[in-house]
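Section 5.1 Outputs to date
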Amino acid sequence: MTHDTLYDPIRKKEVPATPEEHVRQATVRYLLDVVKVPAHLIAVEFPLYLVEPKTDDRADIVVHNFRDGAPLNKPWLLVECKAPGEYTWPVLQQQLNKYLAVLTPNYVMLALGDAVRYFALDAKTKRFVKIEALPEFGQ
């Protein structure tokens, strides 16, 4: 039995090629190539205990907002990735809500296999509203 791996350009190492990791790495490529996020601002498997010591949860991908002077708990983007067929949108939303108790991102991206949903934080209502796509980083 062979153990396939994928190279993660953010963590700079080979990682097991699980179905969820395929989704995660496709998302990283999208952020780098399309959204133009600088690699050094992307964190993969971001440990939330860095913000809230009482949790051992990890967010799939966080794009930090250090350029705008934002603290660690206010990232530009929070991404949750799941393999196709393993989760439903409501279950994914429930998991995301745990992370939103710790982080207040400008944007949220949910990737369920090839299906993707994007949301932006409405500054007035403090609620997330669905958007068609993420803006290019820094725009």
